[in-house]
Design brief:
Radius of gyration: 15 Å
Largest sheet: 7 strands, antiparallel
Number of helices: 3
Order of helices and strands: EHHEEEEEEH
Distance between the termini: 37 Å
Number of strands: 7
CATH topology: Alpha-D-Glucose-1,6-Bisphosphate, Chain A, domain 4
CATH class: Alpha Beta
Length: 138
């Protein structure tokens, strides 16, 4: 199983950051390459569209509002992996009004090398967190 983690420091309180990204249906509000998200199954499954019109279906596995994180799995996607599980977590940096946002994932590459799969998701996470950072300019 392969794994990757990306982090970013954001000049906003963890509560402010979580308010934007903490909703399981909130990706289109901060992630430019996800223009739409529709919930089903009582809000536990999201159907995402990417700019190419491909569908990504993800399932909410764990949601912790108090500790500001959620974990989700991929049920259907055009990615060359199986057993995908990812967590987005907003942490407080002690003695500051800055947040540390961590996006991590683990997955089993399918038809590609570990390195290719890691590079794919590391790039997605990195680009996503850069976009998130732009929502909170210094």
């Amino acid at each position: 199983m392969a794994h990757t983690t990306t982090t970013i420091k954001i000049s906003a309180s963890p509560d402010q950051v979580w308010q934007l990204i903490g909703g399981f249906n909130s990706l289109p509000e901060w992630l430019p390459y996800i223009p739409s998200s529709e919930l089903s199954q009582g809000g536990r499954v999201r159907h995402l569209a990417n700019p190419d019109g491909e569908v990504i279906v993800e399932c909410l596995e764990v949601f912790n509002d108090k500790e500001r994180y959620y974990t989700y799995s991929i049920m259907k996607a055009p990615f060359p992996v199986t057993d995908y599980q990812s967590t987005i977590h907003v942490r407080e940096i002690a003695d500051s009004k800055t947040s540390l946002v961590e996006w991590s994932g683990s997955f089993t590459p399918a038809g590609v090398s570990d390195e290719e799969a890691i590079n794919l998701f590391h790039g997605i996470y990195e680009d996503g967190l850069k976009a998130l950072g732009q929502a909170f300019p210094d």
